[in-house]
Predict the 3D structure of the following.
Amino acid sequence: MPKQITVILGHPDATSFCGAIADHYVASARAAGHEVRLFRLGEIAFDPVLRHGYTQRQTLEPGLEAVRDAIDWAQHLVFVYPIWWGAMPAILKGMFDRLFLPGFAFKYREGSSWWDRLLSGRSAHAITTMDTPPWYFRLVYTMPGHHQMRKTILEFCGIKPVRITSFGPVRHASAAKRTQWLAAVARAAARD
């Protein structure tokens, strides 16, 4: 059954391997009959800093409004980004800080420590690249960036299930290995 999918490229450089992954995912998902909207955060002019926390609303730039509307529209979200210093790049974190606000992504309950998850009913797939071998990232570093994305951002807002795919090490990967990874992306796009 065709889905409405929003793909967000969280690498600031659209010509990166992450950019190739995002483009390949979009083409493969469209070929499978899905409706897809793609956003390249590096091409959107926005302030990634939430200047006043939750005490004062900061007007969203038009590009961020379009991303917010596409997240609201989507049944499935795909985030493509590198792991830098154990987590996502600042531009992607800035998008979350600016968009995933009370009233859109979640809502605190009056007089309670609990919250309502306002983005429930959506699933997500994070596709990450890294120069660290994925097994080392998992066993030695215990995947801090993956836990951040899955547990403290997406599931906090009700997005489930969240699948994470990691490709690496990328820096010295052969053309054949990159082709193999892109084939895995195409399979995921068809099945997502």
